[in-house]
User: Which sequence fits this backbone?
């Protein structure tokens, strides 16, 4: 197998202006309408942003046109202040209060447990951001602290006192899907998406609701779209979409912008989501792509490669 050329500082220097162009030409209004970050952006308070953001990221699996209407209904039910609503809910949790909720294999008890867990953590620590910052500092700070802090944060939510009674007879599998363990082999895409929203910004996309946490420690929220584009740009040669692959892609993006490695994540993700960089490339896609000069697969879109003609007869002796 041909060895992949490493992603170098020279590659990063060449890629940065292309990413700037991609970001500058992105139709943000159209892409926000297809992205769950649109929902927490409706709130001005950091407290409401962190609660609505966590709910949006937890349920952001599957197709956006399916989960976003459910999130809209949930946030409408929580009213003008989701933060106050979940704190009240934690004091008197009820599965019946969200009896309408169904999304794929998640059931009302899962959502009730999630709401009560978020409310409990806020009542105990003042905000989700304050608790995560404490766990991040306790893990040593910097990029290596991100994963253990996330794992502990998720565990504290799953183990919050109101949860067990709400999940009695249901079991914890559904809640574990909503609040996955970042210590596992997966890329924890939804957790890293939530952190990007909270830590970066405020700007036209991300909220910047949590101050004091370093953007440089963030990990790219790795999904199939970012993975595909990153492989074509040479940011990774790994075929799996696990945590190690997310680290490798982020390391390359850290060469592009050491202080803000996930700065271009939204643009890269939506380049794939929008069909601009599909699984099967064509010359038309590549000709329209702002990243084509840095793409290691663009030449393959020019047409099928010729295979050598099969040999016929016996090979001649020399």
Assistant:
């Amino acid at each position: 197998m041909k060895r992949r050329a490493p992603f170098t500082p020279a590659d990063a220097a060449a890629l940065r202006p292309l990413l700037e162009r991609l970001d500058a030409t992105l139709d943000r209004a159209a892409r926000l309408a297809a992205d769950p970050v649109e929902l927490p952006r409706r709130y001005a308070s950091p407290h409401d942003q962190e609660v609505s953001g966590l709910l949006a990221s937890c349920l952001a699996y599957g197709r956006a046109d399916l989960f976003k209407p459910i999130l809209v209904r949930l946030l409408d039910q929580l009213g003008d202040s989701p933060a106050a609503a979940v704190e009240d809910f934690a004091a008197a949790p009820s599965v019946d209060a969200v009896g309408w909720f169904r999304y794929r294999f998640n059931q009302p008890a899962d959502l009730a447990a999630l709401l009560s867990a978020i409310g409990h953590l806020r009542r105990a620590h003042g905000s989700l951001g304050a608790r995560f910052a404490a766990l991040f500092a306790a893990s040593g700070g910097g990029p290596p602290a991100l994963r253990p802090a996330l794992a502990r944060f998720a565990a504290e939510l799953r183990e919050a006192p109101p949860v067990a009674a709400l999940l009695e007879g249901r079991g914890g599998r559904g809640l574990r899907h909503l609040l996955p363990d970042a210590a596992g082999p997966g890329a924890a895409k939804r957790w890293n998406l939530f952190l990007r929203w909270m830590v970066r910004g405020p700007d036209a996309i991300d909220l910047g609701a949590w101050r004091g946490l370093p953007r440089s420690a963030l990990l790219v929220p790795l999904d199939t779209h970012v993975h595909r584009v990153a492989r074509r740009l040479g940011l990774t040669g790994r075929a799996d979409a696990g945590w190690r692959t997310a680290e490798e892609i982020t390391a390359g993006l850290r060469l592009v912008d050491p202080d803000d490695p996930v700065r271009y994540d939204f643009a890269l993700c939506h380049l794939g989501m929008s069909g601009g960089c599909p699984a099967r490339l064509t010359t038309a896609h590549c000709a329209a792509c702002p990243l084509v000069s840095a793409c290691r697969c663009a030449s393959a879109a020019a047409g099928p490669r010729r295979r050598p003609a099969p040999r016929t007869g016996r090979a001649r002796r020399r």
